[in-house]
Amino acid sequence: MLKKGKMYGFKTNIIYVLGIDNIDIVEKNMQYFSGVMTEMPLINIFQPHIDEHYKLLAESALELEYYLKIRKRWKKFLRN
Predict the structure, then answer these.
(1) 50: burial class by Cβ within 10 Å (0-12, 13-18, 19+)?
(2) How far apart (Å, rounded) are the C-alpha atoms in residues 54 and 60?
(3) Three-class secondary structure of residue 55 per DSSP
(4) Rounded to 5 degrees, what are φ and ψ at 2?
(5) What residues form DSSP beta bridges with 16?
(6) Model pTM?
(7) Which residues are CB-neighbours of 39 under 8 A, at least 6 positions away?
(8) What is the pLDDT of residue 10?
(9) What pLDDT, on the 0 to 100 scale, is given for residue 80?
(10) What is the mean pLDDT of the chain?
(11) How many CA atoms lie within 13 A of 16 on its CB side?
């Protein structure tokens, strides 16, 4: 749908929730979505509110390094 919207001249972007996918999956998704977005993505961070939510987190998502690595990779894709 985003590809078609971009093709017809609509502004397109996504809302991406970080913290659930591991870094490799996030990078794969960034690569795909960077080709169909015309606007910067909106980034949210998954926030566990109950113990069950922690089961949904990517293994490294509780560490700042996870988000810093992803930020560097987003910059690479968004420049192209």
Answers:
(1) exposed
(2) 12
(3) helix
(4) -65, -40
(5) 43
(6) 0.79
(7) 11, 12, 13
(8) 94
(9) 55
(10) 91
(11) 25
Contact 27, 35 (CB under 8 A): no
Q: What percent of the chain shows pLDDT beyond 70?
A: 96
| DSSP assigned state of 57 | S
Residue 75 token pair: 């910059």
Residue type, 22: N
| pLDDT tens figures, 15-50 | 999 999 999 999 999 888 888 988 888 999 999 999
Between CA 61 and CA 24 the distance in angstroms is: 13
**Contact assessment for residue 67 and residue 45, using Cβ atoms and an 8 Å cutoff:** yes
Q: What are phi and psi of 15, to 5 degrees?
A: -110, 120
Q: Which residue has the tokens 């988000």?
A: 67
